């Protein structure tokens, strides 16, 4: 760094006085010609802390199962709700629940939306520090068989003695095993259970006769019916109101990126409102991401058994955890307090902020009532 040396010389009092008078005249003259511009007040300085916070832009990488997509996420993007929240969302597809949750664990994505409930709970039991912060889908898992065999499965007793295909880590698998257990059918002894890695392998096994019936994943109805299969029952029929895809993130990220996740939930809630008003908006929103014919998409993602609800539904998550323990599905971490891995506070704040911004919107009031019923007490 260079230092500038200043040499002061003795100056006469008269010289200093003269210089001062000259400077005074110069300044006064400038002031008379044009007023010096006043510094503008910063726009940010005039805003509240909340408004300044809202001006911040956040970015999230959002993972989803490619066979199902993320209906509410796609709608939120399509309707501009992410943009409204100053939130940039990058969608990342995964071939399976395991792939998606491993991606979340590795930091490849910030949040997962369509990897079921059983999958995240299993990962948590094995040591993953995940937090469930919201919901995306309830119900929606079909149980498939060949059309000529469908009459065999009119009741749950029809599954006894059969070869049954399932997708491990998928919610429909847990719901099915729990339903068998509650009906007095031991899934370890009274059926032959064969696990498959993905839905395509499962459907092929049913078509070829390798298994008699199979518990599929949501969003596959068209593909199954094209292959000559039919849905003989649905997970919702076996266990009404069960949760499926939950919104899940790493606990550390939830703490560090709290504002971003809250904005994500606000956009998702608005998307749920739009889907309730017009389910077919899902097709328009999904078209850029799921490149299928509209008829195929309508059959797959606007199926009445697939219920897109954004609420975390803590009570049903706990119920599923208990079911997984009861049927012997959980091998590790049986004594975990699963409620510590369910964070409902973000969703609660998101709803409250939406109500504050639109107090006359009846849907937000309904969402608040549903939250209280499904998460409190």
Automatic annotation (TrEMBL):
InterPro entries: Solute-binding_3/MltF_N, SsuA/THI5
UniProt name for this protein: Solute-binding protein family 3/N-terminal domain-containing protein
Signal peptide: 1-35
Gene source species: Paenibacillus sp. 32O-Y
Keyword Membrane in annotation: no
Solute-binding protein family 3/N-terminal domain ranges (all copies): 59-280
SUPFAM superfamilies referenced in this protein's UniProt entry, alphabetically: Periplasmic binding protein-like II
Keywords associated with the record: Signal
Family that this chain belongs to: Belongs to the bacterial solute-binding protein SsuA/TauA family.
Listed Pfam families: NMT1
